[in-house]
């Protein structure tokens, strides 16, 4: 919703795009946005600062201080890109004491490992050539999160993350095994002008603070304590921002008020007694347990409710070590590496370490400690998927159009080595053969397509009509030119007559004739005459005798059944020759009721697409100037001498006759 409507109570039904307002305002304190910090107050959206004050614009700076100006700390960051040659541990960066927001991240996945140890030499993560599993590890006074993405598709490298602050100097190493992809490091350290909250709260009046003199000695203890607590509450301690509320400051008594006397302690009949211990937190490897104290009668030692004893005198349970013997060693199984091949049979590896738990720490020990256990396999075969390849399963189809530019297709499938059709993603998409391409069938022309005349006349007697379907469509007869459909649309009806009809004072309607079309839309007719009934007979009258009566209709539309597919054809083309046998053509198509191409027509009823024409002999035109001058001109023809000008003139008739029968016979010499 719009910003001005965020504090209205609006409701939208699931699956619909509109919403309805249920109330002008929501309850005060309702969040304005699902993920924001602003809340609604009196129908208005109000922001909340990091100091928890309504309308405050204070935010937490990068140093974690509410309302800070980013000067109380310093961000240290960089990238370790040195080229290393020797295998083993190489120091990357030193993390100083007091560092916060620590982030050590490998810039891309590699076979290298990050390692962490304290300045005293204690290994925290991946020390002594033992690779630890991803998880949380305590060190330097903070908790480090060790991440090592293992997804095949992931390209992220290892990382150490910690909130801090650290209480000692820590060193970050890289176990170098392959070229260094780069290590990004970043942490925050306090600035030179940062005042420690602990120092501020516990310093004495007049004591120098970070080399500066504090409040004057004349300042009262009460004011100093109050000011110290106020400073803490207003956020000088990084990371804590409580709301100042009434009653949070310590109360102080006036100097002239005498404290009330405590009543003298009396002998009690009950006291606290240790009756046992809690269960050990671990069954081995050094755990901890605590004593259990109950209130008992001092004389009978019977347990009584704790209310009989003074709670202020109840001993504080102190931790005691238990089950100090080490736990049995075990095989620590690492995660499988990536498969060596993306398809087909490959290999994968994992690290197996002998580990032992003591004092809540897991230590790597010699492998003979785990000899009582069967060692898991460190290598295994793997097959992520079957290697697949592209196969062309069919030839190109015919063009999608009979003329003009269309498309043709073929079937291309991704097939596994077992012959199964799998998803295209299983094959290399860059090598996929084309399964569709354009095809040009030449220019299109238009022509009238006609069906044959219907067999039935619309009237059983008298005048009627026969019908046919006419449609203008594109065709493609490349051997002969065809013109466009034009305006000379062929007639769809033709008259017919099946003989005269016979037919009283009322209108008399005969039976309907057969439908003029065996399928699709047609018409029916019937005879309507004016007659006068007589006994056993009737007389036919002129129609005006019945003009005062409503005349029944003598024609109606009819529809017997869908036509389905029918053969359509164009008109015959012009004959290819004017004599001695030529041919003419027409295009024949099978069309459905909606004039779409179909294959459901009866092939035996298909009209002819080609027929002979002008089979009569050619009658040569008599040229009085073209005659044979010699009786043996047939010899000239047989000797093929008509190519010479002299013989072509001397035997003009014979040479012309043979030239008409054999085009190209005559040449010029």
Q: What's the average pLDDT?
A: 79
CATH architecture of the domain at 73-190: Sandwich
- Numbering strands along the chain, what is their spatial order in the largest sheet? 5-14-7-12-11-10
CATH class of the domain at 73-190: Mainly Beta
Helicity level: under 10%
| Shape call | elongated
Largest sheet: 6 strands, antiparallel
The CA-CA distance between the termini, in Å, is 96 Å
**Secondary structural class:** mainly beta
* Number of helical regions: 5
Which fold name fills CATH's third level, the topology of the domain at 73-190? Jelly Rolls
- Uncertain residue ranges: 193-267, 477-482, 664-669
Give the strand content.
Answer: 25-35%
Total count of strands: 41
Q: Radius of gyration from the CA trace?
A: 54 Å
Structure in words:
The protein has 669 residues and is mainly beta. Among the domains are: 1-59, no CATH class; 73-190, Jelly Rolls; 271-322, no CATH class; 328-384, Single Sheet (TSP-1 type 1 repeat), CATH 2.20.100; 389-396 and 405-440, no CATH class; 504-553, no CATH class; 564-571 and 583-617, no CATH class; 627-661, no CATH class. The radius of gyration is 54 Å and the shape is elongated. 13% of the residues are buried. It comes from Chloropsis hardwickii. Residues 622-659 form the PLAC domain.
């Amino acid at each position: 919703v719009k910003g001005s409507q965020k504090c209205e109570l609006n409701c939208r039904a699931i699956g619909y795009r509109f919403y309805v307002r249920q109330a002008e305002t929501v309850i005060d304190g309702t969040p304005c946005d699902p993920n924001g910090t602003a809340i609604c107050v009196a129908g208005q959206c109000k922001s909340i600062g990091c100091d928890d004050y309504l309308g405050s614009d204070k935010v937490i700076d990068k140093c974690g201080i509410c309302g800070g100006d980013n000067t109380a700390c310093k961000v240290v960051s960089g990238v370790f890109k040195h080229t290393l040659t020797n295998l083993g541990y190489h120091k990357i960066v030193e993390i100083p004491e007091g560092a916060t927001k620590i982030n050590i991240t490998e810039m891309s996945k590699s076979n290298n490992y990050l390692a962490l140890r304290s300045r005293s030499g204690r290994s925290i993560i991946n020390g002594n050539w033992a690779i630890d599993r991803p998880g949380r590890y305590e060190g330097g006074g903070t908790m480090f999160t060790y991440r090592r993405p293992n997804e095949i598709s992931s390209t992220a490298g290892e990382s150490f993350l910690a909130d801090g602050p650290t209480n000692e100097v820590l060193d970050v190493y890289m176990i170098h095994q392959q070229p260094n992809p780069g290590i990004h490091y970043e942490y925050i350290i306090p600035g030179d002008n940062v005042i420690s909250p602990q120092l501020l709260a516990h310093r004495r009046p007049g004591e120098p603070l970070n080399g500066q003199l504090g409040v004057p000695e004349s300042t009262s203890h009460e004011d100093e304590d109050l000011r110290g607590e106020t400073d803490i509450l207003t956020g000088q301690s990084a990371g804590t921002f409580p709301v100042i509320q009434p009653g949070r400051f310590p109360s102080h008594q006036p100097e002239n008020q005498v404290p009330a006397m405590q009543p003298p302690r009396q002998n009690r009949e009950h006291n606290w007694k240790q009756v046992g211990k809690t269960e050990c937190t671990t069954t081995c490897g050094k755990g901890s347990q605590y004593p259990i104290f109950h209130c008992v009668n001092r004389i009978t030692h019977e347990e009584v409710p704790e209310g009989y004893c003074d709670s202020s005198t109840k001993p504080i349970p102190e931790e005691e070590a238990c089950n100090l013997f080490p736990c049995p060693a075990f095989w620590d199984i690492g995660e499988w590496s990536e498969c060596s091949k993306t398809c087909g049979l490959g290999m994968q590896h994992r690290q197996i370490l002998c580990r032992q738990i003591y004092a809540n720490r897991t230590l790597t020990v010699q492998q003979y400690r785990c000899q009582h256990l069967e060692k898991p396999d460190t290598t295994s075969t793997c097959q992520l998927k079957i290697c697949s390849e592209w196969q062309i399963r069919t030839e190109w189809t015919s063009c999608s159009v009979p003329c003009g530019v269309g498309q043709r297709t073929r079937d291309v499938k991704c097939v596994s080595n077992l012959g199964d059709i799998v998803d295209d993603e299983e094959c290399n998409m860059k090598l996929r053969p084309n399964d569709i391409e354009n095809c040009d069938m030449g220019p299109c022309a238009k022509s009238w397509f006609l069906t044959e005349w219907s067999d039935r006349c619309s009237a059983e007697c008298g005048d009627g009509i026969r019908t046919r379907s006419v449609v203008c469509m594109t065709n493609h007869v490349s051997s002969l030119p065809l013109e466009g459909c034009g305006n000379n649309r062929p007639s769809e009806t033709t008259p017919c007559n099946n003989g005269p009809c016979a037919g009283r004072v009322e209108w008399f309607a005969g039976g309907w004739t057969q439908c003029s079309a065996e399928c699709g839309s047609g018409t029916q007719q019937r005879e309507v005459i004016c007659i006068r009934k007589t006994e056993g007979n009737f007389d036919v009258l002129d129609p005006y005798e019945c003009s005062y009566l409503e005349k029944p209709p003598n024609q109606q539309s009819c529809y017997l059944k869908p036509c389905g597919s029918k053969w359509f054809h164009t008109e015959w083309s012009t004959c290819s020759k004017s004599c001695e046998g030529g041919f003419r053509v027409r295009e024949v198509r099978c069309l459905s009721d909606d004039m779409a191409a179909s294959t459901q027509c009866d092939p035996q009823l298909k009209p002819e697409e080609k027929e002979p024409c002008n089979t009569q002999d050619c009658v040569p035109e008599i040229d009085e100037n073209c005659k044979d001058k010699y009786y043996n001109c047939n010899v000239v023809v047989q000797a093929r001498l008509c190519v010479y000008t002299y013989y072509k003139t001397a035997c003009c008739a014979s040479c012309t006759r043979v030239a008409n029968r054999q085009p190209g016979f005559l040449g010029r010499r």
